TrEMBL record:
The keyword ATP-binding does not apply. The keyword Flavoprotein does not apply. This is DUF1573 domain-containing protein. It comes from the Bacteria. Keywords: Signal. Residues 1-26 form the signal peptide. PANTHER family: LIPOPROTEIN-RELATED, SIGNAL PEPTIDE PROTEIN. It comes from Gimesia maris.
Amino acid sequence: MLSKSSFRFGFLSACLFMLSTSSSFGQEWAQKMFDKDKIDFGVIARGSDAQYRLKIKNIYPSPVHISNVRTTCGCSAAEPSKNILESGEEGYIQVKMDTARFQRRKDSNVIITIDAPQYAEIRIPITAYIRTDVVFTPGSANFGSVEVGKGAETTVALAYAGRDDWAITGIQSKDPSLTVKAVETARGGGRVNYNLILTLAPNTPLGPIREQIMLKTNDVNFTTVPLLVEAKVESDITITPEVVSLGMMVPGQEKTVNVVLRGKKPFEINKIECESNDEAFKIRMPKTTQPIHVLPLTIVPPNKPGDYSEEFTVTIAGRGEPITFKAFGKISETKTN
C-alpha cells in the first residue's frame, strides 16, 4: 500500500512531467516558424553595420502576437518588423551587433516572447567576432531610395591598422547590378586606407537590395571582410504595402483593407483590374488627380477554402507601364449563416 508521502511525490512528479511536456511542445510549436535556430555573423569589421533578419512565418490558422523581443547582451539589439502576424504572413526579427563599442568575440541571445495563440519563449543564440584592425566609415553602403532607371553611387572608407603589406585582393558580389571598386588612398606606418566605390546600374530591377559583399584580403587568418549593402529601387509610383495581407477570411464575410499609392507628382488612376474571374473584390475608384491615393479593397471571400491570392493591375493616365500588386490570404471552411 502506498504511503501518503509516496503518493504526493508521484503526483508532483506527474504534474512536473506534464508541465515540462506542455512547455516543450509550446517551444517546438513556435520554433517551427523561424528559418534559423542560431545567428552567426562570422568575422566582421569594427564600426560595420552588422545586421541580420531572422525570418518568421505564421504557418498556423490563428494570428501570432509577438509581445516582446530582447537580447541578453548590450553588444546586440533586436526588434520585430511587426508584432502581429496573420495566418500565412511573414515578418522578421532585426538583429544588430554593436560593433562601435564592442570588440573581439561576443556571444548573446535574442529572446522572442509570443503570447498568442499560446505562450512560448524562443531563444536564438548569436555569435560574432568583431575585428579591431579594420574599420568602415560609414558602417554600411546604404544607397537609400533610388529611382528606377537612374542608378546611384556611394563610397565607404576602409581603414586598416596592422601590417604594412595588407591589401584587398578581390571583391565578391552576388548582385550583377552592383559593381565595387577598391581604390587605395594611403599606405605606411602599418596603416592602409581604401575608398570602396559602389555603383548601382541604371538597369537595376525594382525592389529592395540587401546583400553582403565580401572583400578578399591577403590576411591568412581573416581572409574576407563582409560589408552590408542596402538600397531600395523604387518606381515613380510606389505601393504600400508591397504585398497585401488579407489574413484569415470567412466565406461570404466582407473584409476591407487599404492600399496606398504614392507618386513623385500628382497622377490619375484610369482603371484597376483583377487577374481572376472570381469577382470577389469591390474597389472604390478615386476620381481626383493627386500624389497619394488610398484604395479601399473590399473582398467577399468565395466558398473556396484554403490559400487565396489575387493580382491587381493599376493603369495610370499618361504612364506607359501599368503597376501591379498582389494580395494573399486564407479562406476558412466556416460559412456565415
